[in-house]
Structure formats: C-alpha cells, structure tokens
Write a structure and sequence with these properties.
With about 230 residues, this protein is an alpha/beta fold. The chain has helices spanning about 10-20, 40-45, 60-75, 100-125, 150-170, 195-210; strands spanning about 1-5, 25-30, 50-55, 80-85, 125-135, 175-180, 220.
C-alpha cells in the first residue's frame, strides 16, 4: 500500500511510519521540521527508497498542497493517510477556559482543527478512490462532555472530530474517519497514559489495511474500530 503519515516525527506518527515500513509498505512521512528528524533518518537508512520524508506544516495550506503533489509523484495514488499532527500547549494544562492565553487558543485551533481541514482538502485529490483518510482526534469531543481540563485542546478536538463527517457528507469516493488513539504514553498524553504509542499504532495499522473493518456510517471510532459516543 501507499501510505502517508502526517506528523511522523515522534510518538504515534513515528510508530505508524515504522510499522508500515516494517510490513513492506511505501511510506511518505510528513514532518514540521525543515531537516529530517533523527529517528526518521534511521528509517531512511534502513528502508531506502520505500520512505520519503517531506515538509508538512498543517497550518500552511499551500505547503500541504505541494506536499500532496510530491507524494503523488513519489508513490502514485495514496491508499490511506493518517493525520497525527496536533498540539497541547503548556498553558492549556493549567488554565481554565476563562484564563486561557488567546495566542495558545489560536495556535491550538490552527494546528488541531484548521490542520485537519487543510490536510484533508490538500490530499483528497491524490487519494485512491475508495481509500481512507484518518484524522487523530480524542475521546472527549461530545458536546455535553464539558470538563475543565485542557479547554483549548478540548474545543479544538471537538471541532476536528466533525471534519471527517463533513467530508463524508461532501464526497463519496474516499472515506474519512476521526480516530481516538487511546490514552498513550507520549509527550502529550503521558500524565493520563494507559497504553504505549506502539499499541495504538498496531490498531490503526489494522484499520488502514482493512484488517479491522470500518464503515463511514460510524466514522468516529477508536483505534480498534469501535464506535465512539458523540
């Protein structure tokens, strides 16, 4: 399969890139850094022409469109894409909604929500008809799920979770999913972790390869394909 992973520098994105390469697939790994991160450099050394690292800042729609064209020239049609890019900024861990830093709120929405729209819009034209595009979201987007912790992140992920549903309503030749990856032991989620990123990657790999069946009728799911409450 031809696979694109956006946000592949570390954590879940890196584990997905590693897993797909390990299983013999072709991978394009999008990163925000201008130089290839060390972990991906090692994968390049091991897998050679099966991996292409490219610049993919999800807040830059023009750069994403260029990245989509690059991926198409590298691998042809994209069978499946997973957008892992996201942020949880420091102030958001301690501030309530009425105390949040406006700059952090804007940045969080730019990456987590606008990034979901820009990525799906840029890569849809190069997706295989019948392919799938996954956006990693969260377990807490329900409208009535109004806790006080990480308010900027929570608001942005609620909006981002609706993005795949709206794309499914707009087009019928690619399937879009919002995926809760579980509470992972990563830099972002370590304080509430229940699983390792590699375990989440294993489940999402099975979703993207079709081993775990998925249906756009239930487009908000977890990493094992189980429907999430809206």
């Amino acid at each position: 399969m031809n696979i694109v992973i956006i946000g592949a520098t570390q954590g879940l994105g890196y584990e997905l890139a590693r897993k797909f390469l390990e299983e013999g697939h072709i991978v394009a790994a999008g990163v925000v850094e201008r130089e290839t991160p060390p972990a991906l450099q090692k994968l390049e050394e091991k897998y050679g022409q099966k991996l292409r690292v490219f610049r993919a800042d999800v807040t830059d729609d023009t750069e994403l469109e260029q990245g989509a064209k690059l991926c198409a020239s590298f691998m042809g049609e994209v069978d499946a894409l997973c957008n892992v890019a996201g942020v949880l900024l420091p102030g958001d861990r301690v501030n309530l909604i009425h105390e949040c830093d406006p700059a952090e709120l804007r940045k969080t929405f730019e990456v987590n929500t606008l990034g979901a729209v820009f990525t799906a819009r840029a890569f849809y034209p190069v997706m295989k008809r019948g392919g799938m595009l996954l956006t990693i979201t969260s377990e807490g987007p329900g409208i009535k799920n109004c806790g006080t912790w990480v308010p900027c992140y929570g608001l942005s992920k609620t909006a981002a979770t609706k993005v795949p549903g709206m794309f499914n309503a707009a087009v019928d030749d690619v399937d879009f999913y919002a995926v809760h990856p579980g509470r992972m032991n990563t830099e972002m989620g370590r304080t509430t972790a229940q699983i390792e990123a590699a375990e989440a990657a294993e489940g999402i790999y099975r979703l993207m390869t079709g081993e775990i069946p998925a249906s756009r009728a239930e487009w908000y799911i977890d990493y094992l394909g189980r429907p999430m409450a809206v």
